[in-house]
């Protein structure tokens, strides 16, 4: 009985820590974007830098996700997209996304974020209409799926992500379009039987 209460308390504490981390990230993200704008002055370069930052975050974040989530094996891209939408966004941004708009081949879909914490308290002036403010999310997804190795999950997925709808530009939600370009099997330089 006491063990269950202790586990419950630990789970509540972990959730509170994740919520605080998400809040700190969303509050400081605007400052980061503003600094990039003043450093690079070219919005296309700022978009590229945000995507690169996200990619680097994603390749590191996947280890924490795999260690702390209770994710079972993902057999295909569809299942992987559901894990990203339902578990990863919830774990790291304290929001849940939905997956929709699948193409006939099953290699392209949209992640829909009705509540995007990155855009809270943000307004884009007209002069920044070409800024892809949330492109860091695309980089995180791309980096994480490329590095998703271990625990029997699909490995080395090369995906393309882009923001196709953005609440900062008047849309109802943030839509991230994901397209699976390639799924590469992991090649190890050794054989376990040796």
Order of helices and strands: HHHEEHEE
Helix/strand-derived category reads: alpha+beta
Stretches with pLDDT under 50, minimum 5 residues: none
Strand order of the largest sheet: 1-2-4-3
Instruction: Calculate Rg over CA atoms.
Output: 18 Å
Kindly state the percentage of residues in helix. Answer: 40-55%
- N→C terminal distance: 47 Å
Mean pLDDT: 81
| Individual helix count | 4
Judging from the principal axes of the Cα atoms, what is the shape?
globular
Main beta sheet strand tally, sense and closure: 4 strands, antiparallel
- DSSP, total strands: 4
What this model shows, in words?
With 194 residues, the protein is of the alpha+beta class. A hairpin with an 8-residue loop joins strand 3 and strand 4 (174-183). The chain has a four-stranded antiparallel β-sheet with strand order 1-2-4-3, covered by helices on one side. It contains four helices and four strands.
Please supply descriptive tags for the structure shown above.
194 residues; 4 strands; alpha+beta
